[in-house]
């Protein structure tokens, strides 16, 4: 009975927000929209703590948004890429960018962020 009640209360928007709302998650996904990246590339690109990055990548992998490929064992080299499910998030970024262009004012005295 409890399982049926959970299914009845499932909200896809809340589920997506829970996954994507984790710290750095959107930054990681956006970076991977440009193509495969190694762990250190992602870590240095955003100055993400390695423990936090590892946790976020694991969550995204478990959800089927990211794939993890071991390129070599010694030294360890791992590459991350978006799955088709992850690539579908490009539409989310496009919608957020469109909203930002319409409603956000760039901060004074700062270079505008590079957006595609």
From TrEMBL:
Lineage: superkingdom: Bacteria
PROSITE patterns xref list: HTH_HXLR
PANTHER family per record: TRANSCRIPTIONAL REGULATOR, MARR FAMILY, TRANSCRIPTIONAL REGULATORY PROTEIN
UniProt-recorded name of the protein: Uncharacterized protein
Source species: Capsulimonas corticalis
Source lineage: Bacteria, Bacillati, Armatimonadota, Armatimonadia, Capsulimonadales
């Amino acid at each position: 009975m409890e399982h049926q009640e959970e299914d009845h209360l499932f909200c896809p928007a809340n589920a997506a927000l829970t996954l994507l709302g984790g710290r750095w998650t959107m930054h990681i996904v956006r970076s991977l929209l440009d193509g495969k990246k190694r762990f250190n590339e992602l870590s240095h690109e955003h100055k993400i703590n390695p423990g936090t990055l590892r946790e976020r990548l694991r969550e995204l992998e478990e959800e089927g948004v990211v794939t993890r490929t071991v390129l070599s064992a010694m030294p360890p080299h791992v590459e991350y890429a978006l799955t088709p499910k992850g690539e579908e998030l490009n539409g989310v970024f496009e919608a957020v960018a469109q909203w930002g262009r319409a409603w956000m004012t760039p901060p004074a005295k700062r270079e505008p962020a590079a957006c595609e």
